[in-house]
Write a structure and sequence with these properties.
There is one protein chain. The chain has 205 residues and is mostly helical. Helix content is 75%, strand content 0%. The protein is elongated, with a radius of gyration of 21 Å. The structure holds zinc ion and fe (iii) ion (3 copies).
């Protein structure tokens, strides 16, 4: 039983499961348990890559938005995301698996959609509303990833790893809910501005 915890500074995030090793690089000819481990490992790497992409994208989003609460939400979620990256790194160390896998193409695409919005919309409430939608798609992707990671860790008997991943899952759910709350104000503001333009257009036609 491996119980070494040296190097883990946060006592609440100690990972003390038995050492886990993924031995081969394909799923062919493997036992169910081995292929599930492989799927778990690849999902961890995909999610790690996605989180690293987000640490670069979130500052761009914070800079692009008008609403102060939204800006603060992006800044706070950046700090959380950096922490989430570190949690994943601890898991890779503990399970002795490689950090780097294939790039997460879904996150590349989701971030590109945000960047298009930044370019194509004028600064203001409508742009903020569009960016919130794009960001909620990101959070939902992460919720799906971490939800599955927690389940797989459970099945594989990695209870402490599952607990660590669960913490991130909760942060992603909270981030999504906060965006929903902020969207109520931002959408109202965007609607108000749009209807002023409409009223003006109606008045002169
Ligand atoms: Zn402004
Ligand atoms: Fe995240
Ligand atoms: Fe992915
Ligand atoms: Fe997130």
């Amino acid at each position: 039983m491996a119980t070494k915890t040296t190097g883990y500074t946060e006592s609440t995030e100690k990972i003390s499961d038995n050492v886990y090793r993924a031995k081969e690089s394909t799923n062919k000819g493997k036992s169910g348990k081995e292929s599930l481990k492989k799927i778990f490992e690849e999902l961890l790497q995909d999610t790690y890559n996605a989180e690293k992409q987000l640490t670069k994208a979130l500052p761009e989003l914070a800079k692009a938005v008008d609403n102060d609460e939204l800006q603060e939400a992006y800044e706070n979620h950046l700090k959380e995301t950096e922490k989430q990256v570190q949690r994943l790194e601890k898991i890779f160390d503990r399970l002795k698996i490689q950090k780097e896998g294939k790039p997460c193409k879904a996150m590349e695409g989701l971030i590109k959609e945000s960047q298009e919005i930044i370019k194509e919309h004028e600064h203001g409430a409508s742009k903020d509303a569009a960016l919130i939608i794009a960001s909620q798609k990101v959070e939902h992707y992460e919720i799906a990833a971490y939800g599955s990671l927690v389940e797989l860790a459970d099945v594989l008997g990695l209870d402490n790893v599952a607990d660590v991943l669960e913490r991130t899952l909760e942060e992603e759910k909270n981030a999504d809910e906060l965006l929903s709350d902020i969207a109520q104000d931002v959408n109202d503001e965007a609607y108000g501005q749009a209807s002023e333009v409409e009223q003006y257009a109606n008045g002169i036609s």
